[in-house]
Amino acid sequence: MRAYHSGSLAVQTRVGVRDLAEHVGRSIAPGIRPVAAAFLEAQPMLVLGAAAPDGRVWASLLTGLPGFTRATGPHTLSVAGGIPSRDPLAQAVTEAGTPVGTIALDPRTRRRLRLNGTARPSARGLVVETEQVFSNCPKHLTRRALRGWAPIPGPGSGAVRRTGSLTPDQERLIRAADTFFVATAAPDGVDASHRGGPPGFVELVSPTELRWPDYPGNAMFLTLGNLEEDGRAGLLFLDWATGTTLQLSGVAHTEYGPEGRAVRFRLDAVAETEAASPLRWSAPEHSP
């Protein structure tokens, strides 16, 4: 997989950062270096993006004791447990070669690592064969401390509430969010990324439409580039105190204006899971 496809190149050219993007793109490696392997093994959560069998793109939260994600080779990431059976992506990885994007984000240290490639089921859960591995800077990352673990819900608990639009409670969760994750797709693969900002940076246009500013970042424009090529997107919001997850799937596009860029997202499917994550995090320390 090359560093950039035509969608990302088009956005880089429009914004005028092609030279910077070429320089930053040299940090993208096909394999997992030792420092990245050590980081992965210390993480209790991983966000995975992929397309479900019906074509919808989702971003899903996977959790486990540190070590549940680990590099088993220079190009392989093993994820114990795989995708929960109640998750919209539960049936997404049923054979080798499924395009996926992942991001390991540590709120404790404000570090993040992205690994894109293809996945296959395994006896342990699933394995990702990496094609792109790279770190991002801590810009827009909110610091949180891990306060502890809640009991993992047993069979029959943690039911998923599925709707086609947002409820008032879900809208309140989004308005209060300082962090969410976004998965996007393109012909050459899937990417999972992070978006952060002050509470309220995600605008509720309607119960089926969101809008957020595209803050200056690393000049790669992988997310916006994918939206140029495809448009499908999946968002993941997390209630850090209770472990509830809110997953949205729909389509998005970039708006360019004199005051900057923004992404407008129209959802067509919602999945809310109470206590989906056993991780319990502290109140936020917002990014400078």
TrEMBL record:
The organism's place on the tree of life at top rank: Bacteria
Pfam families, alphabetized: PNPOx_N
Domain Pyridoxamine 5'-phosphate oxidase N-terminal: 167-253
Classification via InterPro entries: Pyridox_Oxase_N, Split_barrel_FMN-bd
Name this protein carries in UniProt: Pyridoxamine 5-phosphate oxidase
Species for this entry: Streptomyces showdoensis
